[in-house]
Design a protein that fits this description.
Radius of gyration: 17 Å
CATH topology: Rossmann fold
Structural class: alpha/beta
Largest sheet: 7 strands, parallel
Shape: globular
CATH architecture: 3-Layer(aba) Sandwich
CATH class: Alpha Beta
Distance between the termini: 29 Å
Number of strands: 7
Number of domains: 1
CATH superfamily: NAD(P)-binding Rossmann-like Domain
Oligomer: single chain
Order of helices and strands: EHEHEHEHEHHEHE
Strand order of the largest sheet: 3-2-1-4-5-6-7
């Protein structure tokens, strides 16, 4: 990254995979944000050990926060903590990365699987963005003479998927039926579009990014992309987003994906 992405950022689901690599690359960049808030469900658990080690390395930049993205009480508590640390500057960027991939053909999918996927992949990003909307507005207001949208000013990035695309579904459904995942990510796309229209008046950019098929616990070892490659690409895209990208779904290389 040649330039700073933003001054402050919240990354959800940051204890592993894509979220952890987002935090790592942002912190290790030549011009890191002043504040990186790394949210995860269990900061003291074994799954967050690597994140905690990274936070110790960058203790002036990374703040690990206990965050359950589908719990209003948890989100409110974190927002109060972050507001105090941000010193009235607002929050520039939210990366709604926390998500679950629940495998399931039609025969394997029931109410439990659908509700779990929907709660994490859709309700979570909605609650997070709703709670932090005032801080996003405060960040946007720091640029009174700027009308252009950008992640440096104020933005929400929802991590979506190629499998969310209704247009592309006939071409890839047989390889990955995944009813709960596909349907919940398609709903996340609609949330993205709604927020993009709702927040346009506030100067806040909202869009969705597909990270590619990545070698993570969720993506599996057969995936063609490493987390390093995926996040390097996504951060390059994030750094150059403008108002024309608000309400769109792009991939990690900046290519447009149809809804």
């Amino acid at each position: 990254m040649a330039s700073r992405v933003c001054d402050s950022v919240l990354v959800t689901g940051s204890n592993r995979g894509i979220g952890l690599e987002f935090v790592r690359q942002l912190a290790d960049s030549p011009s890191p944000p002043d504040q990186i808030f790394a949210g995860c469900r269990d900061p003291n658990g074994s799954s967050a050990q690597e994140l905690q080690e990274l936070a110790k390395k960058h203790q002036d930049v990374i703040t690990v926060v206990q965050l359950e993205t589908d719990s209003p009480a948890s989100i409110t508590e974190v927002s109060k903590l972050m507001e105090a640390k941000l010193n009235d500057k607002g929050l520039n960027l939210i990366i709604n990365n926390a998500g679950v991939s629940i495998p399931g053909s039609l025969a394997e999918t029931g109410k439990k699987e659908m509700m779990e996927a929907y709660s994490t992949n859709v309700v979570g990003p909605l609650l997070i963005t709703k709670e932090f909307h005032p801080l996003l507005c405060k960040a946007a207001a720091q640029f009174p003479h700027q009308t252009d949208m950008s992640c440096r000013r104020s933005a929400v990035i929802n991590v979506s998927s190629l499998l969310s695309s209704i247009t592309i579904c006939p071409g890839n459904f047989s390889r990955a039926p995944l009813y709960p995942y596909r349907i919940s990510k398609a709903a996340l796309n609609m949330l993205t579009c709604c927020l993009a229209e709702d927040f346009r008046k506030d100067g806040i950019l909202v869009m969705a990014l597909h990270p590619g098929w990545v070698q993570t616990e969720m993506g599996g070892s057969q995936a063609p992309l490493t987390t390093t490659e995926s996040i390097t690409g996504m951060l390059k895209v994030i750094a150059i987003l403008t108002e024309k990208d608000s309400g769109r779904l792009l991939d990690w290389e900046g290519k447009s994906i149809p809804w």
